């Protein structure tokens, strides 16, 4: 069902399809541990039985209706302190591919959520292995709700719900892999000066007043930047506050 992309140099050129697995991130990691896989290897499945999300959450997706896959990358050109650049690059590739299939108004909710308007349409889970100061290997897992028509949680949505169009999963996958390679090659070629500017342009609630919670404290603030370490910069009551992943939570969406 899923084809090796015709227009990429390495991304998806090794494509592993399994009808079912526990988690594509975990399985790809295990396969790479037992025998090193080439950069750009993609593992895709129709059904995850134990899909993983951020903060130890699970990732649920109706089998055969959505995209759930992971990519193996070897971003040895990036220092650990710059790891958020990989995050931005992958996120922007997802936005580009979703826009291509008609999902206008796609937003990136820091740090790894893909939103359409106020609902979550996808998520990214990047797991890194570090060697000295550099990133040796990253497994980037992407879950995107494409054709699913209903969800148990009111905060989730799909491309179908917004466009009314059923997409061919393989075509969406091909577009995604091409976008991912394009962004990744720009990053690797240090051709990523516009990365943060483009990321901020897509950032959910950027320059907008919103409610947050940090360490039990609720406050209203305005996201005004992402710093070089990928931390969220929020201005609240005239004070600039900076948060790492897990230190802050968006309230009401
Ligand atoms: C999140 O929003 O919490 C991240 C979700 C990431 C889900 C994808 S689905 C493919 C890959 N395999 C996993 O187990 N998780 C990621």
Bound molecules: biotin
Low-confidence stretches: none
Summarize the amount of helix as a percent range: 10-25%
How would you classify the helix and strand content by structural class?
alpha+beta
Strand order of the largest sheet: 1-2-3-7-6-5-4
Beta-strand residue fraction:
25-35%
User: So what's the overall shape?
Assistant: globular
Tell me the radius of gyration.
18 Å
Mean pLDDT across the residues is: 96
- State the major sheet: 7 strands, mixed
Write down the secondary-structure element order: EHEEHEEEEHHHEEEEE
Q: Termini, distance in Å?
A: 35 Å
Quantity of strands, as a count: 12
Q: What would your notes on this structure say?
A:
The protein has five helices and twelve strands. By secondary structure, it is of the alpha+beta class. The strands form two sheets. A seven-stranded mixed beta sheet has the order 1-2-3-7-6-5-4, sandwiched between helices. Strands 11-10-9-8-12 form a five-stranded antiparallel beta sheet, with no helix packed on it. Helix 2 (83-100) runs antiparallel to helix 4 (169-188). The chain starts with 14 loop residues before the first strand and ends with a strand. 38% of the residues are buried. The site of biotin has 21 residues, from helix 1, strand 3, strand 6 and strand 7.
């Amino acid at each position: 069902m899923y084809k090796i992309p015709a227009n990429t140099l390495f991304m998806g050129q090794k494509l592993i399809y399994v009808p079912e697995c526990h988690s594509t991130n975990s399985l790809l990691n295990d396969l790479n541990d037992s025998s090193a896989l080439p950069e750009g290897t993609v593992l895709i499945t129709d059904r995850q039985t134990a899909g993983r999300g951020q903060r130890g959450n699970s990732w649920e997706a109706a089998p055969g209706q959505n995209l759930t896959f992971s990519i193996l990358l070897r971003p040895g050109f990036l220092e650990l302190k710059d790891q958020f650049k990989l995050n931005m690059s992958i996120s922007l590739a997802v936005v580009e591919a979703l826009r291509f299939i008609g999902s206008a108004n796609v937003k990136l909710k820091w740090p790894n959520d893909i939103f359409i308007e106020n609902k979550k349409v996808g998520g990214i889970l990047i797991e890194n292995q570090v060697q000295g100061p550099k990133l040796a290997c990253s497994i980037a897992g992407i879950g995107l709700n494409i054709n699913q028509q209903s969800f148990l949680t009111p905060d989730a949505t799909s491309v179908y719900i917004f466009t009314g169009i059923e997409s061919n999963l393989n075509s969406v996958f091909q577009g995604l892999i091409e976008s991912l390679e394009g962004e990744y090659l720009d990053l690797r070629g240090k051709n990523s000066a516009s990365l943060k500017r483009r990321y901020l342009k897509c950032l959910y609630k950027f320059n907008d007043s919103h409610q947050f919670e940090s360490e039990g404290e609720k406050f209203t603030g305005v996201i005004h930047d992402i710093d070089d370490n990928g931390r969220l910069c929020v201005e609240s009551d005239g004070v600039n506050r900076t948060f790492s992943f897990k230190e802050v939570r968006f309230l009401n969406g």
